[in-house]
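Lab meeting, item 3. Inverse folding demo.
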């Protein structure tokens, strides 16, 4: 969790409990609840946005494949066609 181990987290929590007066614990709990709710909403919005982007990419992929296939077919036709020989008549 954020690069700290559980033991470090518990030490930080223990120090916070010792430093914060008992009468302020409800305010601190409300503050952390608001922070966690805000972070959770951001994560949900980001995941929803990434799902929308992935959905649009999935919709565009068949079109890109069709364009690439058509381009390959056109290119192959040009390279496979026999060159036209111009005959020069000698007089």
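The presenter then showed the designed sequence:
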């Amino acid at each position: 969790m954020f690069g700290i181990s559980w033991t470090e987290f518990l030490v930080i929590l223990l120090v916070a409990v010792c430093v914060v007066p008992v009468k302020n614990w409800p305010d601190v709990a409300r503050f952390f609840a608001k922070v966690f709710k805000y972070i959770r909403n951001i994560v949900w919005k980001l995941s929803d946005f990434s799902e929308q982007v992935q959905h649009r990419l999935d919709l565009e992929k068949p079109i890109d494949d069709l364009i690439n296939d058509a381009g390959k077919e056109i290119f192959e036709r040009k390279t496979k066609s026999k060159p036209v020989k111009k005959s020069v008549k000698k007089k």
